[in-house]
Amino acid sequence: MGVAATSATTELLALADWRRRVADLFSEVRSVAHEDPERAWDAWRARRDDLFRTHPQSPVPPADRAGFVGRYFDYDPRLRFDRVAVDPAPPPSPDALPLALPNSGSDSLAFRRIGSLELALPVGARRLSLFWMEGYAGGLFLPFRDATNGAQTYAAGRYLLDTAKSGDLGGDLGSGTITIDFNFAYQPSCAFDPRWACPLAPPENRLDIPIEAGERIA
Fold it and tell me: Which of 118, 111, 115 lies closest to 129 in space, CA to CA?
């Protein structure tokens, strides 16, 4: 086997390991958060930061990994919402084209708007659209922007859910609800290195208020 083939295989095995570790982390988060959401958040931050420092698939550039320390807002229990109802979106017309969300790179991934969520935030109710990633591995996707972007957080917004990459806070199939916790909001990979191409929040998911919870950059 040639050097190039060996390198490519090693990289793919590392990517599989990264996804496995992230899936294990969110599995622990869901288990612990049932009784103690803040303890689950502490574990998420510690293990996530360790992955970003040590794993070969970290989105942080290699030269910056050893000294990486994640920055987060203080935990705010008011910004966790269990059993959030998903209001279904109207079915698309038969000739509708796939939905393309904004992207930090040249890639264009296909999505479908499957519903919306109303969240009783401290300043009043706000609504976010929930998407399904049509290609790749499929999965729920919930990006958002807010008034902290460009100053305290990444200018193009953050993610709440990306179940294709195991970013899943759980839900209840029987009631058709999901868990939303802004304390687990995180920057997309392109916030750390522009070599990554990331789907981003569309205008309908831009909140007019600051969400001071989750990962920050300043």
Answer: 115
